[in-house]
Amino acid sequence: MTAPGGVGLYSIGVRGMDVPQLLEWAAEQGVPFVHLRGGPRGFDLARQTSDVLAYWRRAAQQWVPVTGVTADLDLTDLFAPAAPERARARVELERLAAAADALGAGWVRLLGRTVPEGPLLEAMLGSRLPQARLPLLVELHHPGWLAPETLDALEKMLGRWPQLRLLADTTQLAAARPTASGDADTALERVLHFTRVLHLSDDGTGLDAAGRNLVAGRARSRIADGQHMEVALEWTGQPRTPQACLSRYRDACREWPQRVGPPPRRP
User: Distance between CA atoms of 256 and 193, rounded to whole angstroms?
Assistant: First the structure.
């Protein structure tokens, strides 16, 4: 997975546009690439026709590429104890990955809202990751992922499943750092070691709030050291208009080169 240059944009930050309109607008604003919200709460790629996907791909080729797609699925959905639930999640992933591939995207993001414990964790550690057309990135949405035992288990899964890596959200990781017993900085570096995409998250309080600057600075140091990461703005504040999003995007582009962290600690 080769990371494109510059700061891209996650489509969650703009409402009221279809995919071709979004990509044309992004190109006009100089956005180099877009991450597309692809689940049912977004553009619902898995239920689009092949003709629609082909049309959207031509728009991406004409304007700006869609480099990644986000799912509403949780990583643990793929290992649900109930067979019908597990099968539905795996079929949904297969369809979404096929649609993302049709658009020319390079990865699919899964949520990490649930921290696996007990039998679920054992099942995950003893299972294979379902095969998908594209690499999968999990976004750690629960602070419990940085707890020592859970982080150890995550690293074990990532070691066994090379197709699975991480998407790091600056807000999520900043909030999770206090849950890391002992050296929180080392826990952060262990996560960033497996990170392939970074979202600079702004909920209206800015990119520096609540330790986000620390996370971004450490990620940028890794990029400077040769690690590949796609970097995009995730605007979740209000309003989600093109004008408001563009203002925050310009801020992110201006501030991102100033994010400088200490040299990364190797996990």
Answer: 20
**CA torsion through residues 83, 88, 91, 93, sign:** negative
CA dihedral 32, 219, 237, 233 (to 10 degrees): 0
In sequence order, which ranges of 68-205 are alpha helices (DSSP H)? 83-103, 118-125, 148-160, 170-176, 184-193
235 falls in which pLDDT band (50, 70, 90)? very high
Of residues 224, 230, 259, the one with CA closest to residue 9: 230
Burial classification of residue 51, based on how many CB atoms lie within 10 Å of its CB (0-12 exposed, 13-18 middle, 19 or more buried): exposed
Residue with tokens 């597309």, as numbered in its chain: 36
Q: Whole-angstrom Cα distance, residue 178 to residue 175?
A: 7
Q: What is the pLDDT of residues 160-198, one digit of tens each?
A: 999 999 999 999 999 998 877 668 899 999 999 999 999
Rounded to an integer, what distance in angstroms lies between the CA atom of residue 52 and that of residue 49? 5
93, 143 Cβ separation under 8 angstroms: no
What is the distance between the alpha carbons of residues 261 and 220, in angstroms, rounded to a whole number? 7
- For residue 221 the two structure tokens come to 């140091």
Beta-carbon contacts of 114 under 8 Å, excluding residues fewer than 6 positions away, are 74, 75, 76, 142
Cross-strand pairs, 235:
202
- The answer to whether 26 and 252 are in contact (CB under 8 A) is no
45 by Cβ neighbours in 10 Å (0-12 / 13-18 / 19+) ranks as buried
Q: Encoding tokens for residue 202?
A: 């702004």
Q: From 50, 97, 95, select the one nearest 69 (Cα to Cα).
A: 97
φ, ψ of residue 30 in degrees (nearest 5)? 80, 15
Any idea which residue has 């201006």 for tokens? 254
